[in-house]
Amino acid sequence: MTVDATLAPPATGTSAPPATGALRIGPHTVWPPVVLAPMAGITNAPFRTLCREFSGGKGLFVSEMITTRALVERNDKTMQLIHFDATETPRSIQLYGVDPATVGKAVRMIVDEDLADHVDLNFGCPVPKVTRKGGGSALPFKRNLLRAILREAVGSAGDLPVTIKMRKGIDDDHLTYLDAGRIAVEEGVTAVALHGRTAAQHYGGTADWDAIARLKEHVPEIPVLGNGDIWCAEDAVRMMRETGCDGVVVGRGCLGRPWLFGDLVAALGSGAPGEGGAPAAPRFGEVAAVMRRHAELLGLWLGDEARGVVDFRKHVPWYTKGFSVGSDVRRALAMASSLAELSELLESLDQSQPWPAHADGPRGRTAPGKRVVLPDGWLDDPYACAALSEDAESATSGG
Predict the structure, then answer these.
(1) What is this structure's pTM?
(2) What UniProt keywords apply to this chain's record, in alphabetical order (predicted)?
(3) Which of the two ends of the chain, N or C, has the fewest CB atoms closer than 10 A to its terminal CB?
């Protein structure tokens, strides 16, 4: 089945796109300057394929977060996650690590075995089981540890560009993003992406786009990408105009909306959403076709149709948000185990349903602020290079 790459949600505005040049990530030109954010269990090869189909191959699509220790140890699941389709270029891997030596080994492995064309490092994950070990969004507080990791990564990368994704800091009393941005520049990082929230905010509240603007002013030497609260193409246009950032990173906004990347291409590449003959908002029948395609791709990737459909179940609430889907059908969709069963359930619904009003907006994790769990004494000295235990690495992604 061929997905209609013109499928797009309704426009929310008609502002002209900001004046901007192509995003440069080392030797790679990314236009429009749009990046798919790594999300655990989401941004696997099938989902990246779907997003690329809608964008016409334009943009940068990053893998799920890969733990450096698991990569070096050649964990079977990890080795599957780093597989890229032959059409993916550039191939982009996000790594998570807390030990400079292990990060260096992982990057050298990527270079020596030609596993990717770009390496991104995760310093944004706010999940408690990560921060309590000093990883993710907790790590940039330790400035010298951050510097050591970046130095190993960049020094091991050769010609491969290294970028980072981070948050504002641990909480409003422990902001780290400006120091981290300066360290990144000094250590040869190619670009930085900032999620405009602290770890304490988790995914609640509103992203602070002003912080993205401040970071751009603070590190004019390298591209700065903005992340947070991009739910439609107009949000991306507005973020770039208001902050002066060089590109956008889209995470939860594309959950159940892979066609958002087509809308972003239209908005940032050739005019604003709603102009120039932009496609009409999808009806449910079109959305259902994308759902079947997504489940099919997962089955092919996993080598088992039933496993693919089971893995797809978590996407159902995002795709169907706002549409009229009865509770019985919702329960059945959450238990579907074959493509035939999934198709039958989707076909039982009204295919002509128009795109729901207010269907766009927060999706995925929306947990409010909470206390950040940190190692004992973590905040005592921002420059002490803490020794972290081996179990500080986790397979949980986010940021």
Answers:
(1) 0.89
(2) Flavoprotein, FMN, NADP, Oxidoreductase, tRNA processing
(3) N
